[in-house]
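Exercise (ungraded).
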Amino acid sequence: MDPDRRGQWLRGVLDLCVLALLRDGESYGYQLAQALDTAGVGPIQGGTLYPVLLRLQRTGLVTAQWREGDSGPARKYYQLTAEGRAALRQGGNAWLAFVAPVTDIVTKGVDG
Amino acid sequence: MNRLVTVAEMTLRELTRRRGVLLLLLLMPLVFWMIRRDSYVGQSIRALFLGISWAVSTAALFAASGARELEPRLRLAGYRPHQLYLGRMLGLWVLGLAVAVPFFLLTVIDANNLRYAGIALAMLCCVAVAAPFGMLIGALLPRELEGTLLLLTVVAMQMLLDPASPGAKLTPFWSSREIATWAVDHTDAGYLSRGLLHAAVVTVLLIVTVAGVFGVRLRRRRHLHHAPLT
Amino acid sequence: MNADEWLRVFAAELHQRRVAVDAARHVVAEAATHLREGGGDPWLVFGSPQAYAATIVESIGTAPAPRPGPVRLDARGITKRYGRRTVLRDAALTVRAGQIAAVVGANGCGKSTFLRICAGLISPDAGEVTVSGRLGYCPQQGGTADFLLPDEHFVLVGAGQGLTREPARQAGRAAARQLGWEADRDVPARHLSGGTRQKLNLTMSTLAAPDVLLLDEPYQGFDQGSYVNLWDQLVRLRDEGRAIVVVTHLLNQLDRVDVVLDLTSSAK
Protein backbone atom coordinates (compact mmCIF):
# COMPACT_ATOMS: atom_id res chain seq x y z
CA MET A 1 0.00 0.00 0.00
CA ASP A 2 1.13 3.54 -0.64
CA PRO A 3 2.65 4.53 2.73
CA ASP A 4 1.80 8.21 2.28
CA ARG A 5 -1.86 7.45 1.86
CA ARG A 6 -1.84 5.03 4.78
CA GLY A 7 -0.17 7.74 6.87
CA GLN A 8 -2.88 10.24 5.99
CA TRP A 9 -5.65 7.84 6.94
CA LEU A 10 -3.93 6.90 10.16
CA ARG A 11 -3.54 10.50 11.22
CA GLY A 12 -7.33 10.75 11.34
CA VAL A 13 -8.00 7.62 13.35
CA LEU A 14 -4.88 6.70 15.29
CA ASP A 15 -6.24 8.35 18.44
CA LEU A 16 -9.44 6.31 18.13
CA CYS A 17 -7.45 3.11 17.62
CA VAL A 18 -5.38 3.85 20.71
CA LEU A 19 -8.45 4.60 22.81
CA ALA A 20 -10.06 1.39 21.59
CA LEU A 21 -6.98 -0.68 22.42
CA LEU A 22 -6.97 0.79 25.93
CA ARG A 23 -10.62 -0.09 26.50
CA ASP A 24 -9.90 -3.44 28.05
CA GLY A 25 -6.94 -2.41 30.14
CA GLU A 26 -3.84 -0.31 30.48
CA SER A 27 -0.91 -0.58 28.09
CA TYR A 28 2.34 1.15 27.20
CA GLY A 29 3.65 2.66 23.99
CA TYR A 30 5.65 -0.21 22.58
CA GLN A 31 2.90 -2.71 23.32
CA LEU A 32 0.31 -0.49 21.63
CA ALA A 33 2.49 -0.21 18.53
CA GLN A 34 2.81 -3.99 18.39
CA ALA A 35 -0.92 -4.49 18.89
CA LEU A 36 -1.68 -2.12 16.01
CA ASP A 37 0.80 -3.95 13.79
CA THR A 38 -0.61 -7.35 14.73
CA ALA A 39 -4.13 -6.12 14.01
CA GLY A 40 -2.97 -5.37 10.48
CA VAL A 41 -2.90 -1.58 10.59
CA GLY A 42 0.78 -1.78 9.70
CA PRO A 43 3.91 -0.69 11.54
CA ILE A 44 3.44 2.47 13.61
CA GLN A 45 6.64 4.36 14.46
CA GLY A 46 7.25 5.83 17.88
CA GLY A 47 7.51 9.26 16.32
CA THR A 48 3.85 8.97 15.27
CA LEU A 49 2.47 7.17 18.29
CA TYR A 50 3.84 9.10 21.27
CA PRO A 51 2.70 12.57 20.19
CA VAL A 52 -0.82 11.10 19.94
CA LEU A 53 -0.54 9.57 23.40
CA LEU A 54 0.73 12.87 24.81
CA ARG A 55 -2.17 14.74 23.23
CA LEU A 56 -4.67 12.25 24.65
CA GLN A 57 -3.02 12.64 28.04
CA ARG A 58 -3.07 16.41 27.87
CA THR A 59 -6.76 16.47 26.94
CA GLY A 60 -7.55 14.11 29.81
CA LEU A 61 -8.76 11.17 27.72
CA VAL A 62 -6.05 8.95 29.17
CA THR A 63 -3.95 9.12 32.31
CA ALA A 64 -0.41 7.84 32.54
CA GLN A 65 1.77 6.48 35.25
CA TRP A 66 5.37 5.27 35.38
CA ARG A 67 5.65 1.80 36.85
CA GLU A 68 7.99 -1.16 36.88
CA GLY A 69 6.44 -3.94 34.81
CA ASP A 70 6.35 -7.59 35.87
CA SER A 71 9.50 -7.98 33.87
CA GLY A 72 11.70 -5.39 32.26
CA PRO A 73 12.22 -1.70 32.86
CA ALA A 74 9.94 1.01 34.19
CA ARG A 75 7.34 1.92 31.59
CA LYS A 76 4.77 4.60 31.19
CA TYR A 77 1.39 2.89 31.39
CA TYR A 78 -1.67 4.57 29.93
CA GLN A 79 -5.22 4.10 31.21
CA LEU A 80 -8.50 5.18 29.71
CA THR A 81 -10.45 7.78 31.71
CA ALA A 82 -14.23 8.16 31.83
CA GLU A 83 -13.89 11.07 29.39
CA GLY A 84 -11.78 8.84 27.17
CA ARG A 85 -14.45 6.17 27.22
CA ALA A 86 -17.09 8.71 26.22
CA ALA A 87 -14.85 10.10 23.47
CA LEU A 88 -14.23 6.57 22.21
CA ARG A 89 -17.97 5.85 22.02
CA GLN A 90 -18.73 9.12 20.29
CA GLY A 91 -15.75 9.16 17.96
CA GLY A 92 -16.10 5.44 17.21
CA ASN A 93 -19.72 5.81 16.19
CA ALA A 94 -18.88 8.81 14.07
CA TRP A 95 -16.12 6.83 12.36
CA LEU A 96 -18.40 3.88 11.70
CA ALA A 97 -21.07 6.17 10.32
CA PHE A 98 -18.44 7.68 8.05
CA VAL A 99 -16.66 4.56 6.96
CA ALA A 100 -19.79 2.52 6.07
CA PRO A 101 -20.88 4.69 3.11
CA VAL A 102 -17.23 5.09 2.05
CA THR A 103 -16.86 1.31 2.01
CA ASP A 104 -20.09 1.03 0.05
CA ILE A 105 -19.01 3.47 -2.60
CA VAL A 106 -15.49 2.11 -2.88
CA THR A 107 -16.71 -1.49 -2.99
CA LYS A 108 -18.94 -0.67 -5.92
CA GLY A 109 -16.08 1.03 -7.65
CA VAL A 110 -13.67 -1.84 -7.10
CA ASP A 111 -16.19 -4.57 -8.03
CA GLY A 112 -17.47 -2.71 -11.03
CA MET B 1 15.93 27.73 71.68
CA ASN B 2 15.19 24.98 69.18
CA ARG B 3 18.20 26.04 67.11
CA LEU B 4 20.51 26.06 70.09
CA VAL B 5 19.39 22.59 71.15
CA THR B 6 19.70 21.28 67.58
CA VAL B 7 23.30 22.48 67.37
CA ALA B 8 24.01 20.90 70.78
CA GLU B 9 22.44 17.64 69.68
CA MET B 10 24.38 17.49 66.41
CA THR B 11 27.62 18.27 68.24
CA LEU B 12 26.99 15.33 70.53
CA ARG B 13 26.03 13.05 67.65
CA GLU B 14 29.17 13.95 65.75
CA LEU B 15 31.45 13.38 68.72
CA THR B 16 29.88 10.11 69.76
CA ARG B 17 30.47 8.78 66.22
CA ARG B 18 34.19 9.48 66.56
CA ARG B 19 34.57 6.42 68.74
CA GLY B 20 38.32 6.04 68.33
CA VAL B 21 38.95 9.62 69.37
CA LEU B 22 36.58 9.28 72.32
CA LEU B 23 38.28 6.13 73.59
CA LEU B 24 41.70 7.72 73.35
CA LEU B 25 40.37 10.76 75.19
CA LEU B 26 39.05 8.58 78.00
CA LEU B 27 42.32 6.71 78.11
CA MET B 28 44.30 9.78 79.12
CA PRO B 29 42.59 10.52 82.46
CA LEU B 30 42.59 6.82 83.20
CA VAL B 31 46.30 6.47 82.56
CA PHE B 32 46.99 9.58 84.62
CA TRP B 33 45.06 8.00 87.46
CA MET B 34 46.77 4.60 87.18
CA ILE B 35 50.29 5.95 87.08
CA ARG B 36 49.93 8.04 90.20
CA ARG B 37 47.72 5.56 92.00
CA ASP B 38 50.40 3.83 94.06
CA SER B 39 51.95 7.01 95.36
CA TYR B 40 49.96 9.78 96.94
CA VAL B 41 46.21 9.90 96.28
CA GLY B 42 46.23 13.68 95.94
CA GLN B 43 48.63 13.43 93.02
CA SER B 44 46.52 10.92 91.18
CA ILE B 45 43.33 12.96 91.74
CA ARG B 46 45.00 16.10 90.37
CA ALA B 47 46.33 14.15 87.42
CA LEU B 48 42.83 12.77 86.82
CA PHE B 49 41.34 16.30 86.77
CA LEU B 50 43.95 17.41 84.33
CA GLY B 51 43.20 14.36 82.19
CA ILE B 52 39.49 15.20 82.11
CA SER B 53 40.26 18.84 81.28
CA TRP B 54 42.52 17.72 78.48
CA ALA B 55 40.00 15.23 77.12
CA VAL B 56 37.07 17.66 77.06
CA SER B 57 39.08 20.56 75.66
CA THR B 58 40.47 18.33 72.91
CA ALA B 59 36.96 17.21 72.02
CA ALA B 60 35.92 20.88 71.96
CA LEU B 61 38.88 21.71 69.75
CA PHE B 62 37.90 18.99 67.28
CA ALA B 63 34.27 20.04 67.29
CA ALA B 64 35.16 23.69 66.67
CA SER B 65 37.64 22.89 63.88
CA GLY B 66 35.25 20.47 62.21
CA ALA B 67 32.47 23.04 62.09
CA ARG B 68 34.59 25.83 60.67
CA GLU B 69 33.36 25.38 57.07
CA LEU B 70 29.83 24.57 58.09
CA GLU B 71 29.15 27.53 60.35
CA PRO B 72 29.02 30.27 57.69
CA ARG B 73 26.39 28.19 55.88
CA LEU B 74 24.35 27.74 59.02
CA ARG B 75 24.59 31.47 59.56
CA LEU B 76 23.12 32.00 56.09
CA ALA B 77 20.48 29.38 56.85
CA GLY B 78 19.14 31.55 59.64
CA TYR B 79 21.25 30.86 62.73
CA ARG B 80 22.52 33.68 64.90
CA PRO B 81 26.17 33.48 66.02
CA HIS B 82 25.28 32.93 69.66
CA GLN B 83 23.06 29.99 68.77
CA LEU B 84 26.00 28.38 67.02
CA TYR B 85 28.66 28.75 69.72
CA LEU B 86 26.37 28.34 72.74
CA GLY B 87 24.74 25.31 71.17
CA ARG B 88 28.09 23.71 70.53
CA MET B 89 29.25 24.55 74.04
CA LEU B 90 26.11 23.05 75.51
CA GLY B 91 26.73 19.81 73.63
CA LEU B 92 30.31 19.74 74.85
CA TRP B 93 29.31 20.35 78.46
CA VAL B 94 26.91 17.42 78.27
CA LEU B 95 29.65 15.26 76.78
CA GLY B 96 32.07 16.44 79.48
CA LEU B 97 29.66 15.48 82.24
CA ALA B 98 29.21 12.06 80.66
CA VAL B 99 32.99 11.64 80.63
CA ALA B 100 33.36 12.84 84.21
CA VAL B 101 30.74 10.60 85.81
CA PRO B 102 32.64 7.27 85.47
CA PHE B 103 35.81 8.88 86.76
CA PHE B 104 33.94 10.28 89.73
CA LEU B 105 32.68 6.78 90.48
CA LEU B 106 36.26 5.55 90.13
CA THR B 107 37.42 7.91 92.88
CA VAL B 108 34.51 6.86 95.07
CA ILE B 109 35.41 3.18 94.69
CA ASP B 110 39.15 3.39 94.58
CA ALA B 111 40.04 6.03 97.19
CA ASN B 112 38.70 6.86 100.61
CA ASN B 113 38.75 9.67 103.07
CA LEU B 114 37.99 12.28 100.40
CA ARG B 115 35.47 15.11 100.34
CA TYR B 116 33.47 13.69 97.41
CA ALA B 117 31.44 16.86 96.97
CA GLY B 118 34.75 18.59 96.35
CA ILE B 119 35.75 15.98 93.78
CA ALA B 120 32.44 16.43 91.97
CA LEU B 121 32.72 20.23 92.06
CA ALA B 122 36.28 20.14 90.78
CA MET B 123 35.21 17.90 87.89
CA LEU B 124 32.37 20.30 87.11
CA CYS B 125 34.89 23.13 87.03
CA CYS B 126 37.15 21.12 84.69
CA VAL B 127 34.26 20.52 82.29
CA ALA B 128 32.94 24.09 82.53
CA VAL B 129 36.32 25.59 81.64
CA ALA B 130 37.46 22.96 79.15
CA ALA B 131 34.57 23.30 76.67
CA PRO B 132 34.97 27.03 75.92
CA PHE B 133 38.76 26.75 76.22
CA GLY B 134 39.00 24.06 73.54
CA MET B 135 36.51 25.89 71.36
CA LEU B 136 38.49 29.09 71.59
CA ILE B 137 41.69 27.36 70.52
CA GLY B 138 39.82 25.60 67.74
CA ALA B 139 38.40 28.91 66.55
CA LEU B 140 41.73 30.73 66.65
CA LEU B 141 44.10 28.14 65.20
CA PRO B 142 43.58 27.00 61.62
CA ARG B 143 44.13 23.25 62.07
CA GLU B 144 43.55 20.53 64.64
CA LEU B 145 47.23 19.65 64.87
CA GLU B 146 48.31 23.12 65.97
CA GLY B 147 45.46 23.24 68.43
CA THR B 148 46.32 19.89 69.94
CA LEU B 149 49.94 20.92 70.40
CA LEU B 150 48.91 24.15 72.10
CA LEU B 151 46.58 22.25 74.42
CA LEU B 152 49.37 19.86 75.27
CA THR B 153 51.58 22.79 76.19
CA VAL B 154 48.95 24.28 78.45
CA VAL B 155 48.29 20.98 80.21
CA ALA B 156 52.01 20.28 80.68
CA MET B 157 52.53 23.79 82.03
CA GLN B 158 49.63 23.31 84.41
CA MET B 159 51.17 20.09 85.63
CA LEU B 160 54.67 21.44 86.14
CA LEU B 161 53.93 24.87 87.62
CA ASP B 162 53.98 25.17 91.38
CA PRO B 163 50.32 25.92 92.23
CA ALA B 164 51.40 28.43 94.84
CA SER B 165 53.38 30.51 92.35
CA PRO B 166 51.65 33.70 91.23
CA GLY B 167 51.73 32.68 87.56
CA ALA B 168 49.82 29.45 88.23
CA LYS B 169 46.61 31.39 88.78
CA LEU B 170 46.75 32.49 85.18
CA THR B 171 46.48 28.91 83.90
CA PRO B 172 42.92 27.92 83.01
CA PHE B 173 42.59 24.79 85.13
CA TRP B 174 44.06 26.13 88.36
CA SER B 175 40.62 25.93 90.00
CA SER B 176 40.46 22.13 89.97
CA ARG B 177 43.86 21.92 91.67
CA GLU B 178 42.78 24.28 94.38
CA ILE B 179 39.53 22.44 95.02
CA ALA B 180 41.39 19.12 94.95
CA THR B 181 43.53 20.33 97.83
CA TRP B 182 40.36 21.04 99.79
CA ALA B 183 38.87 17.67 98.92
CA VAL B 184 41.97 15.53 99.50
CA ASP B 185 43.94 17.28 102.20
CA HIS B 186 40.92 18.56 104.12
CA THR B 187 42.26 22.13 104.18
CA ASP B 188 40.14 25.15 105.07
CA ALA B 189 37.19 26.30 102.95
CA GLY B 190 39.23 29.15 101.45
CA TYR B 191 40.65 26.68 98.93
CA LEU B 192 37.17 25.72 97.84
CA SER B 193 35.85 29.25 97.46
CA ARG B 194 39.02 30.46 95.68
CA GLY B 195 38.75 27.52 93.29
CA LEU B 196 35.08 28.08 92.54
CA LEU B 197 35.62 31.80 92.01
CA HIS B 198 38.54 31.11 89.68
CA ALA B 199 36.53 28.61 87.65
CA ALA B 200 33.59 30.99 87.38
CA VAL B 201 35.76 33.91 86.28
CA VAL B 202 37.73 31.83 83.78
CA THR B 203 34.59 30.26 82.32
CA VAL B 204 32.89 33.62 81.88
CA LEU B 205 36.01 35.18 80.37
CA LEU B 206 36.38 32.29 77.94
CA ILE B 207 32.72 32.42 76.90
CA VAL B 208 32.96 36.16 76.32
CA THR B 209 36.09 35.68 74.22
CA VAL B 210 34.52 32.86 72.22
CA ALA B 211 31.50 35.11 71.66
CA GLY B 212 33.81 37.86 70.45
CA VAL B 213 35.71 35.59 68.04
CA PHE B 214 32.52 34.09 66.62
CA GLY B 215 30.87 37.48 66.45
CA VAL B 216 33.72 38.83 64.35
CA ARG B 217 34.01 35.80 62.14
CA LEU B 218 30.30 35.45 61.46
CA ARG B 219 29.51 39.17 61.41
CA ARG B 220 27.31 40.84 58.86
CA ARG B 221 29.75 42.33 56.38
CA ARG B 222 29.44 46.02 55.74
CA HIS B 223 29.50 45.70 51.95
CA LEU B 224 26.47 43.40 51.92
CA HIS B 225 23.08 45.09 52.08
CA HIS B 226 19.78 43.30 52.45
CA ALA B 227 16.83 44.72 50.59
CA PRO B 228 13.27 43.52 51.21
CA LEU B 229 11.74 41.16 48.64
CA THR B 230 9.82 43.03 45.97
CA MET C 1 24.69 8.79 15.89
CA ASN C 2 23.72 5.95 18.25
CA ALA C 3 20.58 5.84 20.37
CA ASP C 4 22.18 7.46 23.43
CA GLU C 5 23.47 10.33 21.39
CA TRP C 6 20.14 10.75 19.65
CA LEU C 7 18.41 10.90 23.06
CA ARG C 8 20.91 13.44 24.34
CA VAL C 9 20.41 15.72 21.36
CA PHE C 10 16.66 15.25 21.63
CA ALA C 11 16.72 16.23 25.33
CA ALA C 12 18.75 19.31 24.51
CA GLU C 13 16.29 20.25 21.77
CA LEU C 14 13.37 19.98 24.18
CA HIS C 15 15.17 22.22 26.66
CA GLN C 16 15.97 24.73 24.00
CA ARG C 17 12.31 24.83 23.04
CA ARG C 18 11.54 25.46 26.73
CA VAL C 19 9.52 22.32 27.32
CA ALA C 20 8.89 22.09 31.08
CA VAL C 21 11.69 20.14 32.74
CA ASP C 22 9.58 17.31 34.16
CA ALA C 23 7.56 16.85 30.98
CA ALA C 24 10.76 16.73 28.92
CA ARG C 25 12.25 14.17 31.24
CA HIS C 26 9.21 11.90 30.84
CA VAL C 27 9.18 12.18 27.06
CA VAL C 28 12.88 11.36 26.81
CA ALA C 29 12.53 8.43 29.20
CA GLU C 30 9.60 7.06 27.25
CA ALA C 31 11.50 7.29 23.96
CA ALA C 32 14.47 5.56 25.58
CA THR C 33 12.25 2.75 26.86
CA HIS C 34 10.72 2.34 23.44
CA LEU C 35 14.13 2.12 21.75
CA ARG C 36 15.37 -0.35 24.31
CA GLU C 37 12.37 -2.64 23.81
CA GLY C 38 11.94 -2.38 20.10
CA GLY C 39 15.47 -1.69 18.99
CA GLY C 40 15.68 0.10 15.68
CA ASP C 41 17.36 3.24 14.48
CA PRO C 42 16.00 6.27 16.36
CA TRP C 43 16.14 8.22 13.09
CA LEU C 44 13.62 5.79 11.57
CA VAL C 45 11.52 5.30 14.70
CA PHE C 46 11.27 8.98 15.70
CA GLY C 47 12.85 10.94 12.89
CA SER C 48 15.39 13.67 13.49
CA PRO C 49 15.71 14.89 17.10
CA GLN C 50 14.84 18.41 15.98
CA ALA C 51 11.69 17.40 14.11
CA TYR C 52 10.50 15.10 16.88
CA ALA C 53 11.10 17.81 19.49
CA ALA C 54 9.01 20.16 17.39
CA THR C 55 6.20 17.58 17.22
CA ILE C 56 6.34 17.12 21.00
CA VAL C 57 6.06 20.86 21.50
CA GLU C 58 2.95 20.82 19.29
CA SER C 59 1.46 18.05 21.45
CA ILE C 60 2.19 19.34 24.93
CA GLY C 61 3.13 22.98 24.55
CA THR C 62 5.95 24.72 26.36
CA ALA C 63 6.56 26.11 29.81
CA PRO C 64 5.68 29.77 30.01
CA ALA C 65 8.80 31.74 29.26
CA PRO C 66 9.99 33.13 32.57
CA ARG C 67 9.92 36.86 32.57
CA PRO C 68 12.91 38.14 34.48
CA GLY C 69 11.54 39.59 37.68
CA PRO C 70 12.91 42.24 40.00
CA VAL C 71 16.63 42.48 40.74
CA ARG C 72 17.65 39.99 43.43
CA LEU C 73 21.41 40.37 43.44
CA ASP C 74 23.28 43.52 42.54
CA ALA C 75 27.06 43.55 42.92
CA ARG C 76 28.89 46.71 41.91
CA GLY C 77 32.48 47.80 41.73
CA ILE C 78 33.79 44.72 43.51
CA THR C 79 37.55 45.02 43.97
CA LYS C 80 39.62 42.60 45.98
CA ARG C 81 43.37 42.54 46.56
CA TYR C 82 45.42 39.84 48.19
CA GLY C 83 48.64 41.59 49.13
CA ARG C 84 49.81 43.39 46.02
CA ARG C 85 47.85 41.18 43.67
CA THR C 86 44.51 42.51 42.52
CA VAL C 87 42.22 39.52 42.09
CA LEU C 88 39.08 41.41 41.17
CA ARG C 89 38.85 44.85 39.71
CA ASP C 90 35.55 46.65 39.51
CA ALA C 91 33.55 43.48 38.86
CA ALA C 92 29.79 43.88 38.58
CA LEU C 93 26.85 41.52 38.22
CA THR C 94 23.10 42.01 38.29
CA VAL C 95 20.81 38.98 38.48
CA ARG C 96 17.02 39.14 38.46
CA ALA C 97 14.47 36.68 39.76
CA GLY C 98 14.10 33.90 37.17
CA GLN C 99 17.61 34.19 35.80
CA ILE C 100 20.70 32.00 35.88
CA ALA C 101 24.03 33.82 35.79
CA ALA C 102 27.29 32.05 35.06
CA VAL C 103 30.55 33.39 36.45
CA VAL C 104 33.30 32.12 34.16
CA GLY C 105 37.00 32.67 33.64
CA ALA C 106 40.36 30.99 33.86
CA ASN C 107 41.63 29.35 37.02
CA GLY C 108 42.68 31.85 39.65
CA CYS C 109 40.75 34.76 38.16
CA GLY C 110 38.77 35.23 41.34
CA LYS C 111 35.52 33.41 40.56
CA SER C 112 35.22 31.84 44.01
CA THR C 113 36.36 35.04 45.69
CA PHE C 114 33.65 36.96 43.87
CA LEU C 115 31.02 34.47 44.99
CA ARG C 116 32.22 34.53 48.60
CA ILE C 117 32.01 38.31 48.58
CA CYS C 118 28.44 38.09 47.25
CA ALA C 119 27.63 35.63 50.04
CA GLY C 120 29.12 38.00 52.62
CA LEU C 121 31.74 35.51 53.78
CA ILE C 122 34.66 37.80 53.02
CA SER C 123 34.87 41.55 52.60
CA PRO C 124 35.96 43.25 49.38
CA ASP C 125 38.38 46.17 49.36
CA ALA C 126 35.79 48.18 47.50
CA GLY C 127 32.29 47.66 46.19
CA GLU C 128 28.81 46.89 47.43
CA VAL C 129 26.45 43.95 47.15
CA THR C 130 22.69 44.22 47.57
CA VAL C 131 20.64 41.07 48.02
CA SER C 132 16.85 40.80 48.13
CA GLY C 133 15.40 37.95 50.11
CA ARG C 134 17.10 34.90 51.48
CA LEU C 135 20.59 33.93 50.41
CA GLY C 136 21.76 30.35 49.82
CA TYR C 137 25.40 29.42 49.29
CA CYS C 138 26.97 26.14 48.23
CA PRO C 139 30.75 26.09 48.74
CA GLN C 140 33.04 24.18 46.41
CA GLN C 141 33.96 21.74 49.14
CA GLY C 142 33.64 21.37 52.87
CA GLY C 143 30.31 22.64 53.98
CA THR C 144 29.17 19.20 55.15
CA ALA C 145 29.80 17.57 58.52
CA ASP C 146 31.84 14.37 58.16
CA PHE C 147 30.19 12.51 61.00
CA LEU C 148 26.56 13.48 60.46
CA LEU C 149 24.03 11.51 58.41
CA PRO C 150 22.27 13.20 55.46
CA ASP C 151 19.04 13.40 57.48
CA GLU C 152 20.87 15.13 60.31
CA HIS C 153 22.23 17.69 57.89
CA PHE C 154 18.66 18.40 56.75
CA VAL C 155 17.44 18.76 60.32
CA LEU C 156 20.32 21.06 61.21
CA VAL C 157 19.83 23.34 58.20
CA GLY C 158 16.05 23.17 58.51
CA ALA C 159 16.13 24.28 62.15
CA GLY C 160 17.76 27.51 60.96
CA GLN C 161 14.51 28.23 59.10
CA GLY C 162 12.41 27.19 62.04
CA LEU C 163 11.51 23.83 60.48
CA THR C 164 10.90 20.97 62.88
CA ARG C 165 12.55 17.61 62.41
CA GLU C 166 10.18 15.65 60.22
CA PRO C 167 9.33 18.44 57.76
CA ALA C 168 13.05 19.22 57.45
CA ARG C 169 13.85 15.59 56.71
CA GLN C 170 11.05 15.37 54.16
CA ALA C 171 12.12 18.60 52.46
CA GLY C 172 15.74 17.43 52.35
CA ARG C 173 14.90 14.06 50.84
CA ALA C 174 12.59 15.67 48.29
CA ALA C 175 15.30 18.14 47.28
CA ALA C 176 17.82 15.30 47.05
CA ARG C 177 15.48 13.32 44.81
CA GLN C 178 15.46 16.22 42.33
CA LEU C 179 19.17 15.55 41.92
CA GLY C 180 18.54 11.85 41.39
CA TRP C 181 19.68 10.90 44.88
CA GLU C 182 17.67 8.86 47.40
CA ALA C 183 18.96 10.28 50.68
CA ASP C 184 17.28 7.77 52.96
CA ARG C 185 20.28 5.65 53.93
CA ASP C 186 22.04 6.12 57.24
CA VAL C 187 25.55 6.80 55.99
CA PRO C 188 27.72 9.48 57.57
CA ALA C 189 28.78 12.15 55.09
CA ARG C 190 32.41 11.04 55.11
CA HIS C 191 31.44 7.63 53.69
CA LEU C 192 29.52 9.13 50.75
CA SER C 193 31.19 9.19 47.34
CA GLY C 194 32.51 12.54 46.13
CA GLY C 195 29.55 13.10 43.82
CA THR C 196 26.95 12.14 46.42
CA ARG C 197 28.61 14.36 48.99
CA GLN C 198 28.35 17.19 46.55
CA LYS C 199 24.66 16.43 46.13
CA LEU C 200 24.29 16.69 49.90
CA ASN C 201 26.14 19.98 49.75
CA LEU C 202 23.76 21.24 47.06
CA THR C 203 20.67 19.92 48.77
CA MET C 204 21.62 21.85 51.91
CA SER C 205 21.82 25.08 49.94
CA THR C 206 18.42 24.64 48.26
CA LEU C 207 16.68 23.34 51.39
CA ALA C 208 16.14 26.80 52.85
CA ALA C 209 14.32 27.84 49.64
CA PRO C 210 16.67 30.76 49.02
CA ASP C 211 15.66 33.61 46.74
CA VAL C 212 19.28 34.02 45.65
CA LEU C 213 21.31 30.86 45.23
CA LEU C 214 25.10 31.04 44.88
CA LEU C 215 26.84 27.85 43.70
CA ASP C 216 30.59 27.38 43.47
CA GLU C 217 31.35 24.74 40.80
CA PRO C 218 28.57 22.55 42.10
CA TYR C 219 29.22 19.50 39.91
CA GLN C 220 32.55 18.22 41.28
CA GLY C 221 32.63 14.45 41.06
CA PHE C 222 29.36 14.24 39.10
CA ASP C 223 28.82 11.67 36.39
CA GLN C 224 26.98 12.62 33.19
CA GLY C 225 23.54 11.73 34.58
CA SER C 226 24.01 13.74 37.77
CA TYR C 227 25.25 16.65 35.73
CA VAL C 228 22.08 16.63 33.62
CA ASN C 229 19.96 16.34 36.78
CA LEU C 230 21.75 19.32 38.27
CA TRP C 231 21.00 21.54 35.30
CA ASP C 232 17.41 20.33 35.19
CA GLN C 233 17.14 21.30 38.84
CA LEU C 234 18.70 24.71 38.25
CA VAL C 235 16.33 25.42 35.37
CA ARG C 236 13.42 24.32 37.56
CA LEU C 237 14.52 26.66 40.34
CA ARG C 238 14.96 29.47 37.87
CA ASP C 239 11.47 28.90 36.49
CA GLU C 240 10.19 29.13 40.07
CA GLY C 241 11.61 32.63 40.12
CA ARG C 242 14.90 32.17 41.96
CA ALA C 243 18.01 34.09 41.01
CA ILE C 244 20.95 31.71 40.55
CA VAL C 245 24.66 32.39 40.20
CA VAL C 246 26.88 29.47 39.15
CA VAL C 247 30.65 29.61 39.15
CA THR C 248 31.83 27.32 36.38
CA HIS C 249 34.74 26.64 34.10
CA LEU C 250 32.66 24.46 31.80
CA LEU C 251 31.16 26.53 29.06
CA ASN C 252 29.02 23.92 27.34
CA GLN C 253 25.95 24.84 29.41
CA LEU C 254 26.05 28.52 28.60
CA ASP C 255 23.06 28.19 26.27
CA ARG C 256 20.92 27.55 29.36
CA VAL C 257 22.21 30.61 31.12
CA ASP C 258 20.77 34.12 30.98
CA VAL C 259 23.69 36.26 32.13
CA VAL C 260 27.43 35.62 31.82
CA LEU C 261 30.13 37.37 33.82
CA ASP C 262 33.60 36.66 32.45
CA LEU C 263 36.21 37.53 35.04
CA THR C 264 39.24 36.67 32.91
CA SER C 265 39.82 40.30 31.99
CA SER C 266 39.21 41.44 35.55
CA ALA C 267 42.35 39.82 37.02
CA LYS C 268 45.40 41.92 36.40
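Further reading is listed at the end of the chapter. For now, observe: Chain C touches chain B at residues 70, 117-124, 127-133, 135-137, 139, 142-148, 152, 155-157, 159-162, 164, 188, 204-205, 207-208, 211 (CB under 8 Å). The CA atoms of residues 15 and 236 of chain C lie 11 Å apart.
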